[in-house]
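SAMPLE LOG
Freezer: B-3
Tube label: C17
Construct: single chain, 82 aa
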Amino acid sequence: MTEAEVRKVGKRGQVTIPKSMREKEDIEGGDKVEVLEKDGKIIIKQIDRTEELKEAYQEMAKQSEEISEEMLTASKEALDLQ
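STRUCTURE (predicted):
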């Protein structure tokens, strides 16, 4: 059976996830979690970071490509001036 801990809900609806659970599930401050209701229970799930990281790497690759193209253009222009 899963170990439970009692937590108090703050005035703004906030609940602190116990440190032992955050460490076990590798949840850190700033991470996003999914909150859903199922069969009368509130469930907090860690979001799979794979898609988020994939999108970030794709954006970095796009920026690197744009910078490379700009540098190539600048190099060609510099050579034409000589």
